[in-house]
Amino acid sequence: MKMIKFYILTILIFITHVIFAQVEFKSAVSKNKLGVNQRFRIEFIVNKQGADNFKPPPFDNFKVVGGPSSSVNQSWINGKASYSQAYIYIVEPKIMGEFTIEPATIEYKGELLKSNTVKITVTKEVEIPKDPNNPNYIAQQSIHLVAEVSKLKPYVGEGIYVVYKLYVSENINLYGSQVNETPQYKGFWNQDIEVKQVNFKSGQFNGENYKYVILKKAILIPQRSGKLVIEPIEMSFSVGIPTGRGDFFGNMITRNINYSTKSEVKNVNVKALPEEGKPIDFSGAVGEFDFEVLADKNILKANEAAQIIVEVSGRGNLKLFDIPKITTPVELEVYTPEHTEQVVTSLAGLRGSISDVYTVVPQFKGKYKIPEVTFSYFNPNEGKYNTINTEAIIVNVTEGKELLSAVNNSNDTEKKQVVSNDNNFRFIALNTTFKPAIEEEFFKSTLFYLLLLLPFLAIPIGIIIGNKRAKRAGDIFGNKIRKADKLARKYLSQANKQLGNQEAFYIALEKALHNFLKAKLHIETSDISQEKIAEILNNKCVENVTIEEFISVLNNCDFARYTPTTSVLMKQDFEKAKNVITKIDKYL
Known about the structure:
Immunoglobulin-like; 4 domains; 9 helices; 38% strand; extended
């Protein structure tokens, strides 16, 4: 009997092995050696129907430019059926070298199958033959990504712009596009300019008619001298290439391919600002500017406020330098200035004005001088530094307390001659009486016995405190209530700090309300609902108006996180929450 079982098991293992031995899953490539500017086709082929859960290899050091696509081939020849399914990718190398493409995997009847590895050798760029019938060559000649830079030799701080354009020949069809890599601007301060309408226009490229569209615009301000690189934008496209043949109705037959390309790298050689003639107060302003210091009123009373406006206007790196500060007499109380910016970004650069507004409050009657202020900037068009000097501002305080002069105070003091007498050295003592530093011995004193008994008194006190702590630690329900009350105060304080930050404010406020309910009504967060809250508060004899206010604030927290609001409305919701918590706390 045992021998029969052994033979059956052996036959089953053999049949299973034969069945799976017939399953073949392999990798095949169109070429094993290619240039870094070429592409190749890789297929993963399985010869059994029913295989699924295909997973491609990671394709390290390669970029997938097409696929995955699949094809199925099934035939019946002389009574023999054949089947194959292929998963196809179009791949291009990123760098030169020798690489190995790892196996792909697929499942067949619960068994995990792996394809073979493939070795690829990538050499330097090779010359691609110009085949007018090659779809990739046609796409290469018909699609161009261009980066236009306004100036390649600017000064540090001088604004330039870059515009990325896509040129497409009128002979091909563009069905779709995708940005693979966006440009980086290392060493530049940059700000994108919104492209409002992405519409194709007619234009020329290399003397031929094209249609083009502006993809991206940005203002760049170099922050250091030397060679800086504007990296390219890279895109992939779905392109319809005409085949030169027509269908039955005379329409041109096109062949759809995937194609990717990128713009050229742009090198910008940034010139350092000259050291010759650089003013001491130069703070990095580069452009063409005007500068003024104005007072909204020059005659005022004591404790009456006036505003001193320090403004820089014009075109240049307005956001990248500090406005000069004013110096005021100590008799004028000056508050921290309010900084405002009204700057527009366009291809012409940053244009507008920045200003600091000082609030000045005099304390005493008199005339006070705010000294002149200087502002220096570098004009890249002229290649030199310019300095603007403003006039001093006189603030005349006509009414108020008089400021006492230090000179007048000094006139009231008369010099007196020192007179010598017999009592000049009376402070010198010739005799003294010494007393002991410690009049009473510490040993056997009252303090001695108190310190001796102190450890014995501390033991029962420590036991009592320990028992209370243990009792409190064992009070799980009470600890939950205390913790919830503490959290309610914490989140209410946090909500107050987050005023102006909409989402964070309402999250903190909602948590404060929930923890208040947990602390006062002894309910869990999962049980919090409008009906449950109203029911419990009614049982606690809370007025209906107060209950409705609490539910209203809770609803506001839920809705306001996802709808536009203002700081004023947030402040109102915070005050409502505090008031309704105070009202309910009185009832409870």
